[in-house]
Specification:
This protein is of the alpha+beta class. Helices cover 26% and strands 34% of the residues. It has one domain: Thiol Ester Dehydrase, Chain A. Strands 1-2-4-5-6-3 form a six-stranded antiparallel beta sheet. The chain is globular, with a radius of gyration of 17 Å.
């Protein structure tokens, strides 16, 4: 991956209409404690502090929290290229590389493919020491903004 941005505490987040929209409407991101730090075309940067509510019985951040972070970073990176249309995850994969016990993690999502209907994002998750702790690959379906503008499903099938 290209050079990562400086530590978030030394950055001023760039205003982006999608960041504001997601910040207002995504109760799940808020529930977990995710913070969108930066959105650029085809890229996202999200911070997630380690909290007691995110730890597993071994005292490390739960894999489900990391997986949610990967899914969110990959999806937001893709949405920067499709907004106002949205995306839906159809598949994702996460490799856990090291446990995270304290501090915070940063997930950087980067779109590696954008087609007419499908986008694919790579996500790298790093800890405060800039060590990779997880990697993910997210496949997303690009949803049309106005589904009523599409022909009925039966018509679409006959045209194939």
């Amino acid at each position: 991956m290209p050079k990562r941005p400086s530590h978030p505490s030394r950055r001023t987040p760039a205003p982006h209409p999608l960041a504001e929209l997601v910040g207002k409407t995504s109760a799940f991101l808020k529930h977990l404690g995710m913070e969108i730090l930066d959105l650029q075309p085809g890229r996202s940067l999200i911070r997630l502090p380690v909290g007691a509510h995110l730890k597993n019985s071994s005292g490390a951040m739960h894999g489900g929290a990391i997986a949610s972070l990967v899914d969110s970073a990959g999806g937001l990176a893709a949405r920067t290229l499709t907004h106002p249309a949205t995306v839906a995850t159809v598949e994702f994969k996460v490799n856990f590389l090291a446990p995270i016990r304290h501090g915070e993690v940063l997930a950087e999502g980067r779109v590696v493919h954008r087609g007419r209907r499908i986008a694919v994002s790579e996500v790298e998750v790093r800890d405060e020491a800039d060590r990779p702790v997880a990697r993910g690959l997210v496949t997303l379906m690009i949803l049309t903004q106005d589904r009523s503008a599409q022909p009925p499903r039966e018509v679409r099938r006959r045209d194939r």
